[in-house]
Design goal:
There is one protein chain. Helices cover 14% and strands 23% of the residues. It is α/β, with parallel strands linked by helices and 425 residues long. It folds into two domains: 174 residues, no CATH class; 162 residues, Collagenase (Catalytic Domain). The strands form three sheets. Strands 1, 2, 3, 4, 5, 6 and 7 form a seven-stranded mixed β-sheet that branches. Keywords: Signal. InterPro entries: Peptidase_M6-like_domain. GO terms for molecular function: peptidase activity.
Amino acid sequence: MTMPSFKRIPSPLGIWRACLLAGAVAVTASASPSTKRTSNHQHQQQRRADVSACKLPADNSVDLSSGFGFAADCAPSTGTLRAFMFFVDFSDQEATGTGDDTPEALRDFFVPGAAEWYATASYGALALNVTADTSRFYRMPATAASYGWDRGLTYEVHEQYIQDALDGYADGGGSAAGIDADVLYVVPTRAAALISFSPTFMGDVATRAGTHVAKKAVTFGADAYEAWQYLVLNHETGHTMCLPDLYPLDGRATGLFVGGWDLMGYINGPSPDYLAWNKWRLGWLADAQVGCVDGSGSTAHTLSPVEVSSSEGAAAVADSVKAVVVRHNDTAVLVAEARSRLAVDEAACAVGVLLYTVTTDTGSGEGPVQVVDANPGSGGCADDELNDATLTLDGTSTYSVPGWGVTVTVTGRDGDAYAIQVDVA
């Protein structure tokens, strides 16, 4: 299935410019008709690792490395992210100014939905504060056709588009000097079909006179209205916080790497919540919520669902551990996390323990995160093979990851929490 594009524009420098469970904890799930009691693992050799061993550093030579500390003046991912939004139209594609094509209606199309999504997904750690100038549509100085969205978009043309928008804003009586935001949102009229997709500019945003406006910018397009709805704002703002694209940028199937897990892949996937690894990098998960395995042996853990800050039931006593990370080498880890139908994942078509690999030396759109399919050949659900990739007690409960020497087994379940055993050869 061909999907509308959602892209970022690379800088000429090759960089997209425009985070205490120190060891494993054995937990016994409470007995119930639908719960298998966790076996006693005291006889097993357990390797307790400091969580820092699993916090792989970013490789700043690759685009939006999935490691910790990527250096690109990222927008804040905790506290308040300050955004400024204004609205534009064109001489060849004018706004109607009525119905759902007014500045107020377009603001409401994106906000508060996107802000509420972040508040929920971040457990309240991130507040998206959008100031919107809804006084008018500001006329762009060039036609929509002149920007050549249909031919793709270079870093230079994208920067020109943003600076033209700021010129139009000033010509219409706005003051760019008064913006000073973390992220600038430029929203076109619904009539602007030629502005077809919604890229993120990762460079510093400034006027042609050199006045600083924002750290990053997102220029929305028709794909927001036609396909992605407000979630495109969450996807693109994810880039401003230095998260990579998890879908392939070379035109292969959108769900190739992660299916519908994490909206940095397929925006409209059934389980859009950010993966635990991304939440850890963003500062939404504390180190105490991550278990680290570094070396051979067997360890037991209990995972509570990544979608919510805490879990109900006896299995929640493990300090709400959200992820178990198995270090493979200096640039690669395997992650296990529990996924549910809670919060922003209420439409999930499968639940259970999700496994995926992270490689910090793989760039955005090249597969830096790849979901491990514990049910290969199943046909998946919600139109993607990987959407039912999870381990469960009712289906596949154990899986050995090819080439990694790691076996993960679900040994118990208590509500949406799962007890697992990790065996490393």
